[in-house]
Write a structure and sequence with these properties.
Blueprint lengths: L1 E7 L2 H15 L9 E2 L6 E9 L2 H11 L7 E11 L5 E10 L1 H17 L12 E11 L4 H7 L9 E3 L2 E9 L2 E10 L4
Antiparallel strand pairs: 1-3, 1-8, 2-6, 4-5, 4-7, 5-6, 8-9
The structure holds ligand 3AM.
Length: 188
């Protein structure tokens, strides 16, 4: 299966980001209207895995059971356009709050994945929630318009992160479909 590790968003931050998405979709982007991520798909990616075999999945689940999640308070804070230079591919909400705990979580996950032979992410981890993806080129100069249109939305409501998920992603013509494979830590 195609998989990634992520934090599923609670309802309150999801509703807030839905409002931000509405503001994004009202910005004229020179004919290159981005595709808005369906609200039920909003998530915070911790690690993209790619194709994972059933055996790797079992090993990964066993390894991820050993990861400690320090509960952390986070909130969305500001709009970002990624990658940082060149044409915009993704419009995302930055996350702020107890980012140190989040980085510690990502480091533990990277370590589990490395031990199982998954490629280690070399880029520094940048906590963001993808809100929209460019269907065609979106000029960098439009970043300011997007940020102005959403300026009053920040900070978003505080939310607690206490767990993460292994998620399956199935690519379909209408966009990706996600399914939670496993929740960590598992409910007691
Ligand atoms: O949540 P975001 O948007 O940061 O872009 C994909 C999405 O990230 C990313 O994995 C997340 C869930 O689909 N992704 C997809 N293909 C990828 C790849 N080949 C990838 N990340 C790194 N390498």
């Amino acid at each position: 299966m195609r998989a990634f590790i992520a934090i599923a968003l609670a309802q309150r931050p999801r509703e807030h980001l839905r409002e931000v998405q509405k503001a994004i979709s009202l910005v004229p982007l020179s004919g290159s209207s981005p595709s808005i991520v369906p609200p039920e798909n909003l998530h915070l990616t911790l690690k993209f895995l790619g194709e994972v075999s059933p055996m790797q999945t079992d090993d990964l689940i066993a390894s991820l059971r050993g990861v400690t999640v320090l509960p952390m308070a986070m909130h969305a804070e500001g709009l970002d356009c990624l990658p940082p230079r060149g044409r915009i591919r993704v419009v995302a909400a930055n996350l702020a709050g107890e980012v140190g705990h989040l980085i510690a979580l990502v480091d533990q996950i990277e370590q589990c994945c490395r031990q199982l032979g998954f490629v280690t992410e070399e880029r520094p981890y940048r906590p963001h929630i993808t809100l929209a993806r460019a269907r065609s080129d979106v000029k960098r100069s439009l970043q300011e318009d997007l940020q102005t249109a959403t300026a009053s939305a920040w900070p978003g409501p505080d939310f607690q992160i206490t767990d993460f998920v292994l998620m399956q992603s199935t690519l379909k013509a209408g966009g990706a479909e996600y399914r939670v494979v496993e929740l960590f830590p598992s409910p007691k």
